[in-house]
Amino acid sequence: MLFAKSFNAKRARDCLDAFFKLDNSSRPVLILVLDEMDFMLAGWDLPERLAPKLRSRFGINRIAFRSYTHDQIQRILHQRLASLNVFERGAIEIYAKALAHQSGDVRKALMVCKAATERALRRVTDTHVPSLVLSADIEAVQASMSQSPLVTRLRQCSTFECIFLVALLREIKLQTEGVVRRMANLTKTAGLPRVPSFADVRAICFELERSDIVRERKGKWALTFSHDEIQEAFLTHPVGRLLWT
């Protein structure tokens, strides 16, 4: 670590800018590892969009990470959930195999397992009969997530609606001006040819508010969905998945 400290995105960007502008011939060679999330959170452009003179000074090596396989998902889930010992024998294996054929996303797997455990706990509380977390619990959670009207609407978001919601989630102040600026960065990250205008954003806000996905209160935007719900929806959205993962 350069500074052995944690900073917010703006402070980190300023520190790195100052560091790389130092005229010091004895400065060691540095290897900077970033993923697209680092670029987006910091508001930086991807390497391909740098000026040619700057790009030529970087040794850029892009690494594409594949989705987890069935065996990898199974091992990770067992490692995370082994201490609980509450899952029906074979339930995790069956779910891991199904997920590997879908998204291979371990975050989604853990989210589903958590919801399935809560479902089983409610059943035990209601019936006073001991029970493990069954495969049926996992299947029911998957089905409910897929059939939620809100998740369905989120999956149907247009490209710019999707970008607006991702920008809104990452804009701390939740004010329209800041969201518009962040949308511009995300639009470039997604490789889209046109950045939405302010009028476009207002139209997007109107449509999302009409669908009760967002609400405006005193000049700020409030979300009506949880982090888990938008993650579930955008993992299968062509633009949402690009910006989310």
Automatic annotation (TrEMBL):
Task: Please name the GO terms of the biological process aspect recorded for this protein, alphabetically.
Answer: DNA replication initiation; mitotic DNA replication checkpoint signaling
The UniProt entry, under Pfam families, shows:
AAA_lid_10 (PF17872)
Q: Which Gene3D superfamilies match?
A: 1.10.8.60
Which terms are listed as keywords in the entry?
A: ATP-binding, DNA replication, DNA-binding, Nucleotide-binding, Nucleus
Subcellular location per UniProt equals:
Nucleus
> What is a single cellular component term in the Gene Ontology annotation?
nuclear origin of replication recognition complex
Q: Mind listing the GO molecular function terms for this protein?
A: ATP binding; DNA replication origin binding
InterPro entries named in the record: AAA_lid_10, ORC1/CDC6, P-loop_NTPase
AAA lid domain: residues covered: 89-120
The region annotated as signal peptide is: none
Function per UniProt? Component of the origin recognition complex (ORC) that binds origins of replication. DNA-binding is ATP-dependent, however specific DNA sequences that define origins of replication have not been identified so far. ORC is required to assemble the pre-replication complex necessary to initiate DNA replication.
Q: Which family does it belong to?
A: Belongs to the ORC1 family.
Its subunit composition reads: ORC is composed of six subunits.
Supply the name of the protein: Origin recognition complex subunit 1
Task: Give the species.
Answer: Aphanomyces astaci (Crayfish plague agent)
